[in-house]
Amino acid sequence: xxxxxxLVWKEARELLRPRYILPILLLxxxxxxxxxxxxxxxxxxxxxxxxxxxxxxxxxxxEVVVDTLDAESTLAHRSTNGSVETALNETTAAGGxxxxxxxxxxxxxxxxxxxxxxxxxxxxxxxxxxxxASSSQVEELLSQSAHNVTVAVTGAxxxxxDPIERDHTTYVKGRQLSAPPGVVSAAFTSQFIFxxxxxxxxxxxxxxxxxxxxxSETEHKTLETLLSMPVDRRSIVAAxxxxxxxxxxxxxxxxxxxxxFSNLSIGEVGGNGAITLGAGDYLxxxxxxxxxxxxxxxxxxxxxxxxxxxxxxxxxxxxLSGLAIVPMFATMFTDVDALGPLAKGVLFAIPFTxxxxxxxxxxxxxxxxxxxxxxxxxxxxxxxxxxxxxxxESDRPITGNAGWLDRLVRMVQQ
Amino acid sequence: xxxxxxxxxxxxxxxxxxxxxEGLSFEVRPDEIFGLVGPNGAGKTTTLRTLATLLNKDxxxxxxxxxxxxxxxxxxxxxxxxxxxxAGAYESMSGRQFLEFVADFYAQGAAADAMVERGVEIADxxxxxxxxTQAYSKGMTRKLLLGSALMTDPHLAILDEPTSGLDVKNSxxxxxxxxxxxxxxxxxxxxxxxxxxVEYLCDRVGLLNDGVIVTSGSPEELMAEYDAENLxxxxxxxxx
Lengths: 414, 240
What we know:
By secondary structure, chain A is an alpha/beta fold.
């Protein structure tokens, strides 16, 4: 086996140990558990509701309500003069939770031009999403009943009741889309919540793995042995970057799968093909992400030299994570182009910003700025790797001395 | 002219405000064990790390097996093996896998296999050689590391406190291995606080104090020079 391959193999073995990999594996399992929970809620809400009805009215508009409930739900109890308590007991026993009581003067009030009154009795056993959301199903039944009563009272057709049909044309940054603004907004949100999160996870996990790799060498006192082997420093740096990023990207894939499985993302883009990215666009995003990762991991490697343990590495990762989170939130909640020059300058200086905003720019054929971003990433990656190699060639891996940074910390402490 | 295993001339090294090495000069000849001894902070570990290409020198010339540590560090690394005072092995590997990992940098195929077998023999861990190193005691780890350091037949083995943390029996075993190692193209540079060990193992000794070699010679020569019964008394006399 070539020394470089042997080093990558060693890195992967070290980083795939339970102490490093278990915390990463556990979170996707939590996502999957959440996904199962949401799927259960969705399945439950997709079922026909079970209700009871006590119709004291017995006249035609009361009948319209009862017929609507019969058509749209499972009627567990139906009576004209029974008690609400009995109706609730029977409905609850049948798996329902609501009883509709129609008073005796319901039809009479509507005929005299007043609003008819209905009393809804609901039993909430579970104070949870399922318990509260199921009552909204019954509210929808009553809305449908009201609609049917309106048709019965007025004799109006559906077209008369909703006489205006709307066609939408929405312009987004000069681009014409045949969809309402709400749908466009939902489609954008679905595209740009998921992508920045994945990019942020890739940066954080890969960075953490590379830092763990360095911290592990220090913690287990293997660094001196490694650095005295007949292999140049560039190979050691490259092996740590490759090994750490492979494990980090596996972790990102697991998280991405966990998030997708949990249905936490919106995922779909409203079925509007005009606002989706093509394969070439995704390739450009991947190129941008690749150079960002190389640069970030080289920075993480340099920082990891100053970590004496896994805990220390996690502390050192905080600034990097923070820098990854800033552009993620900036692109999720604002439009970078709408920011002032100073804020925009700061944001563009953060290397993680460019792959995160690349999808939005590509959507509007703003390729010039994407290529400029990739150029910036390449420079960032080259400088970061050069710096890491220089640090490895210096005394710092052995002495742990951070030079001016150490002096600054001492000055602050004094 | 014979190439010295180590040739150090006017080596200087400073850490911030501390001058660790103050123009250090010494040589290690082929086929000898050279002992570098001195009080804590005298500069022993800095010297060993400089020879192992782990630290950069400020001034002076340092050659190992004829290669300059600054101009040709890769050649120096191929010629040496370094056993740090406080070292460990990769916990994800068994003892044998660790030896294979190290051997892979020095040889391939049958030569690497032979190297590993020699390492297994020197480490003398019996069937525990196939256990994960995280289950090893400090003494077992030390023996494994010594095996990995000597199995490659380096021109120069740099051993910092080779018996550190070992019990009496294991220390004796390690000393025997070290004693038998030197050959025509094999030398040892050793640092130890155990003067009896140094007296027993070393052909020549350099006494280091405040970053310079104060005196050097064979243990017998030093004891005669300082009219001392043993090397420990020589050490105390020189340091005082």
